């Protein structure tokens, strides 16, 4: 496997290797990281007569949770591997009125403009747990007036003073300074939509074991699949040195950040 895998190939490799989108490390995560707040916000918008679309449904954890609560649930993802797993899980759970589609909503895959794989005014609610943001630009076409968009976005963890002490191939990407709330507001404005509500989450994520720190850092270099990072055993001495110098009583705190937002279609 080379470091030049594209995003779809990386997701297909995760589907084949892990069976889903799971983080392969162990850490101590502070409470209230935004993931359950997202599910609760979505559930407050569900009702039995709605058609719901999920952008970037992955291996389908939210399909199983949300689909039984609505009339029709459609999930799409650009990874065939993830869609296959999501279909199997939905079938095993005996879910009816669920469609899972392999589709890429990006501008690049759709002649220069993002496109959601649904007809005009056919959806009441679009939900997305850490899925793509490009769907926002096509949402006004697909969502009926009065409908909602709800998304949870990963936000980059901050740059740490000790980043420069990490092996070069495990250092943070420049994208760590990315302003996710500003990015979402910009996309909503382009779609002629306004933010209804936005919440930022920023909780501790402590590492006490250098091997788990390696798993985290390697994952962040192309989800650990591009194999750009050096092997664990050669990185371990410098990661142990960083932990010995910078970890507090609870471990080394990398922070876990999320942004949760919703918008209404006029
Ligand atoms: C962080 S994963 C989250 C998956 C799932 N929502 C979950 O919570 O487990 C992001 C998902 O979005 C999908 N994705 C990213 N960009 C996409 C695009 N342009 N079109 C369709 N799916 C996309 C990826 O394949 C991946 O499954």
UniProtKB/TrEMBL annotation:
What is one GO biological process annotated to this record? methylation
Q: Which InterPro entries match?
A: Methyltransf_25, Methyltransf_Superfamily, SAM-dependent_MTases_sf
The alphabetical list of record keywords is:
Methyltransferase, Transferase
A GO molecular-function term, please? methyltransferase activity
Instruction: Point out the signal peptide segment.
Output: none
Provide the Methyltransferase domain boundaries: 52-147
Q: Give the PANTHER family listed for this entry.
A: METHYLTRANSFERASE (PTHR42912), N6-ADENOSINE-METHYLTRANSFERASE TMT1A (PTHR42912:SF93)
Q: What is this protein called?
A: Class I SAM-dependent methyltransferase
